[in-house]
C-alpha cells in the first residue's frame, strides 16, 4: 500500500492485508501494557499530585498532546492514515509537505473517533488487560508511554475504516448512493458488514495470541491477559467502532 498511489490504497484486499499486519503490533502492545497495573491516577484530570500547570486534562492527555505537537512537526499527521487526538492543537510540519493525492473525501479528517477510542480504552480495555488494579507511581511515565503506543495503533486500525468505506463505495456507487440518499444507516451497516472476514480475524487473533504467549503465568492474584481478552476487545470494541467509522464516512459521501 502506497499512499502516493491511490489505486494501491483503495484495493479492498490490500486494505485487509494491512489490517492483518496491524494485529501483530497491537497484540504486542497489549502484552507490553499488561505488565503494569491500571494506574488510574494518570487518567484523572483532577488528580492533585499529577496536575500540570496551565493544562486542563489528565497526565495522559498532556503526554499525548506533547507527543502529537512534536510528531505533527515531523509531518506525521499529513499522512492520510494518521488521525490526531488533539487535531486543534497540533502544529504545521517543519518538513516540506508531501502533497499526497486526495484518496478520501475532503471531510475525512473530520471523521475522528479518537475521543471515543480513548474513553473506551480507559474505561473498558485498561481494567481488562492490566496486571492488577491500582497505582504504581514509579511507572506512571512507562504506563503513559505504553498507553500512547496502543492508542495510536488502535486509532490507525479503526480509522482505516475510512479507506474500507471509500473502497466499498467505489465498488458499488449505485447501491451506496441510494442508501446514503435515504439515510438508511441500518442498510449501510448491513452492506459494509462482512461476517466471514470478521470471523477469520477473531480466529486468527486467538491463534496469534496463543503463539505470542499471552497465556498467563500462574502468579497468584495477578490479572492476566489471555487470548479470550484480545478476541473480546476486537469483537466488542475494535471491529464495531471500525464499522461506525465506515458508516459515518459513507453517510457524508455525497456532500
Ligand atoms: C474492514 C472491513 O469492514 C468491516 C469491518 C471489519 C473489521 O473491522 O475487522 C471486518 C469486516 C467488515 O465487517 C472489511 O470489509 O474488511
TrEMBL record:
Provide a GO CC annotation, any one.
cytoplasm
A single Gene Ontology MF term assigned here is:
L-tyrosine binding
For this protein, the Enzyme Commission number is: 5.4.99.5
Q: Organism, per UniProt? A: Tetrapisispora phaffii (strain ATCC 24235 / CBS 4417 / NBRC 1672 / NRRL Y-8282 / UCD 70-5) (Yeast)
A Pfam family this chain is assigned to: CM_2
Which UniProt keyword terms apply here? Allosteric enzyme, Amino-acid biosynthesis, Aromatic amino acid biosynthesis, Cytoplasm, Isomerase, Phenylalanine biosynthesis, Tyrosine biosynthesis
Q: How does it assemble?
A: Homodimer.
Q: What is this protein called?
A: Chorismate mutase
Amino acid at each position: 500500500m502506497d499512499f502516493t498511489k491511490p489505486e494501491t490504497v483503495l484495493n479492498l484486499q490490500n486494505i485487509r492485508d494491512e489490517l492483518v499486519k496491524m494485529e501483530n503490533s497491537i497484540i504486542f502492545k497489549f502484552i507490553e501494557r499488561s505488565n503494569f497495573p491500571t494506574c488510574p491516577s494518570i487518567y484523572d484530570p483532577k488528580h492533585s499530585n499529577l496536575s500540570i500547570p496551565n493544562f486542563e486534562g489528565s497526565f495522559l492527555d498532556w503526554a499525548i498532546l506533547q507527543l502529537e505537537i512534536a510528531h505533527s512537526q515531523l509531518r506525521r499527521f499529513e499522512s492520510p492514515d494518521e488521525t490526531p487526538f488533539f487535531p486543534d492543537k497540533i502544529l504545521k510540519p517543519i518538513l516540506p509537505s508531501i502533497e499526497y493525492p486526495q484518496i478520501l473525501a475532503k471531510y475525512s479528517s473530520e471523521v475522528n473517533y479518537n475521543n471515543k477510542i480513548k474513553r473506551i480504552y480507559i474505561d473498558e480495555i485498561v481494567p481488562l488487560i492490566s496486571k492488577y488494579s491500582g497505582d504504581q507511581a514509579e511507572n506512571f511515565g512507562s504506563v503513559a508511554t505504553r498507553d500512547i503506543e496502543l492508542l495510536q495503533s488502535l486509532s490507525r486500525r479503526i480509522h482505516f475504516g475510512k479507506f474500507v468505506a471509500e473502497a466499498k463505495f467505489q465498488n458499488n456507487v449505485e447501491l451506496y448512493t441510494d442508501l446514503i440518499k435515504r439515510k438508511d444507516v441500518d442498510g449501510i451497516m448491513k452492506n459494509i458488514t462482512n461476517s466471514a472476514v470478521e470471523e477469520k480475524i477473531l480466529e486468527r487473533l486467538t491463534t496469534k495470541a496463543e503463539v505470542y504467549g499471552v497465556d498467563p503465568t500462574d502468579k497468584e492474584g495477578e490479572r492476566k491477559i489471555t487470548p479470550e481478552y484480545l478476541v473480546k476487545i476486537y469483537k466488542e470494541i475494535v471491529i464495531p467502532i471500525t464499522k461506525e467509522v465506515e458508516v459515518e464516512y459513507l453517510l457524508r459521501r455525497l456532500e
